[in-house]
Amino acid sequence: MSQTSTIGKAINLGLRRALEDDPKVVLMGEDIGRLGGVFRVTDALQKDFGEDRVIDTPLAESGIVGTAVGLAMRGYRPVCEIQFDGFVYPAFDQIVCQVAKMHNRSLGTIPMPIVIRIPWGGGIGAVEHHSESPEAYFCHTAGLKVLAPSNPNDAYWMIQQAIASDDPIIFFEPKRRYHEKGEIDTDLGLAGAYPLHASRVARPGSDVTVVAYGPMVRTCLDAAVAAEADGRSLEVIDMRTLSPLDMGPVYESVRRTGRLVIAHEAPGNVGLGAEIATRVMQECFYSLEAPVLRVTGYDTPYPQSRLEEEFLPDLDRVLDAVDRTFAY
Amino acid sequence: MVNGERGPRATKSGGTTRTAAKKPAAPRKKATTDRSVANGTDPAFVQLLTPEGDRVEHPDYSVDFTDQEYRDLYRDLVIVRRLDTEGTTLQRQGQLGIWASLNGQEAAQIGSGRALAQQDMVFPTYREHGVLWCRDIDPIMPFGLFRGVDLGGWDSRKYKFNMYTIVIGAQTLHATGYAMGVKLDGKMGTDDGEAVIAYFGDGAISQGDVNEAFVYAAAYDAPVVFFCQNNQYAISVPVHKQAKAPLFERASGFGFPGVRVDGNDVLATYAVTKDALDRARHGEGPGLIEAYTYRMAAHTTTDDPTRYRDRSEEDAWRLKDPLSRMKAFLEKQGLADEDYFAELTAEADRYALDLRERVLSMPEPDPSSIFDHVYPNGSPLIDEQRAEFLAYHASFEGSGH
């Protein structure tokens, strides 16, 4: 069955289905119960599944993740919500030192089937600590997997696939796109849906490859439409999975186009773009017609909201980078 | 001073007060958890002014204000509420991105703020507009943060008032470290000694940082007062869901005294805060104050409290309003008349209008200021990006873009 949904509602529906399918799934986080979360992503779930399965936690992020570790040991599948990206850091120690390493330290005997959902990125006019893009920290940590859906159908299925996975997963939700609508196909099933740790061509093209993930996929798709009017064909690849990276579609694309632009909101320095560019250089060196270019946030603190449009990569900056790849 | 009627709750001790560190509170029955918010009764706390505006005595705490000082306290309450209302209005009109209202918590903030000595240092959350007012800081200062034209930065040391801290509870450790510095500098032990106050809420007290701050403050006898405004909600989650015993009682476990005060009573809040600050400045170590109050407004303007609490609960708390009880007191004592109140209302309106006009004319930030102040010693990476940024934007000049 197909239905129209926003990204936020798609995650809500996915969480609902996971709660229905597996009695060991529990949600935990600040204000996720009666309030339904500050973005309403868990709306009505506590009402329908009870306070024991949709848990309003104390205001303590290390506590959320640390107790999720214990619940996971006990056989539960905790889905933690961190209220905003900038509030994950009190839990960073638990995530990096415990969640990521438990399976390895226990000689493979104790999995950590924990999903940590993080409304993520900028563009909502918020005050500081509410607009950050910390994905590189987590991608750098062995033992974690990191996902970033960009559209409602992926959001609906990826959250369910993540919960079903025994790997600990950081699940970044593109908060400024929560209200964007699209079709979701609820009949695909976990196995029938697009594979979890796989990237995908979001829009085919022939002149230049543009790689993005999360909220930047929409920006790059818009850029592709604008470029088409100028007679230039952009192939947009939605990475979907940030760790591990699925580079196959990127290599295949770059071998055809010879040009690559990578876009992300996070600062460029030691970001995902650097990793992707290096791998492309190694695998596609003789196909490249131009240096790989990045369009990213700046290496500054995330600015006040009146300047965030200057900070965030937009359609113009993507097209500017595309132009520059043709200057070689 | 009139002999006020002593409310039934006011006859009880306000808590462990000064002897808590030596003599921990007796074990308590679970039923005494702070559910009073739900059933409409008050817990035991220090109170000097009843909701009806009657003065009551307390064995450990008292105030001795002149008539003018009483009026000044009321003036503070009225003006900070009016300015706060203007903040909410500006947000509703699209002039602020968000506003965190202090409505209902004016007495907790004015009482504690006016108890500060000139040399004391304040570490606020993002809601302490009333304390800021007491420091004689221009009330427009935090509006840059909420309007989004800046990141809410100022020289904390100049104002003896730290920047607002949004990450919940983080500032309690900063306050403790600052207080450790006061001690290292030998700036305590006399009437001129420095004390530090850290504001936080009932939600924050669950954070690891706050508990670590308690540990450090106790371990180093730091001259810091932990001022917890228990406004009953951490956004949507009521305090009794997070805490199974009164918050002030935690202090005794860490080894310093805790006290609960009627946070809607500006006189009692002043008295307990002054006492705790003076003990800290004289080298007697940290203290915890739980100001029992209620957030009448939403958590912030993005919040919708109708989803998690009943109007009847808000109505019950409205009867304990910090302003109306002080007004009733002034009236009963004959300290102010209708002309005074009318002029005060007009004065508060003038402040609000002036604030509004200045907020609306706050300059837009220069885009390239994104690259300012990232490092004290600069960075070639930042310099390079600033140059690229300027060149990119210059490329649009005159293109009609």
TrEMBL record, chain A:
Keywords: Oxidoreductase, Thiamine pyrophosphate
SUPFAM superfamilies documented for this protein: Thiamin diphosphate-binding fold (THDP-binding), TK C-terminal domain-like
Domain of life: Bacteria
The protein's required cofactors: thiamine diphosphate
Transketolase-like pyrimidine-binding domain span: 5-180
UniProt xrefs under SMART domains: Transket_pyr
UniProt KW Ribosomal protein keyword: no
The protein's name in its UniProt record: 2-oxoisovalerate dehydrogenase subunit beta
Natural source organism: Actinorhabdospora filicis
Taxonomic lineage of the native organism: Bacteria, Bacillati, Actinomycetota, Actinomycetes, Micromonosporales
TrEMBL record, chain B:
Region called Disordered, residue ranges: 1-40
UniProt entry keywords in alphabetical sequence: Oxidoreductase, Pyruvate, Thiamine pyrophosphate
Any GO BP annotation: branched-chain amino acid catabolic process
Boundaries of every Dehydrogenase E1 component domain copy: 77-367
Keyword Oxidoreductase: yes
Transmembrane segments: none
InterPro entries: Alpha-ketoacid_DH_E1_comp (IPR050771), DH_E1 (IPR001017), PdhA/BkdA (IPR017596), THDP-binding (IPR029061)
Pfam families per UniProt: E1_dh
Annotated GO MF terms: magnesium ion binding; oxidoreductase activity, acting on the aldehyde or oxo group of donors, disulfide as acceptor
Cofactor(s) needed for function: thiamine diphosphate
Protein name: Pyruvate dehydrogenase E1 component subunit alpha
Naturally occurring in which organism (per UniProt): Actinorhabdospora filicis
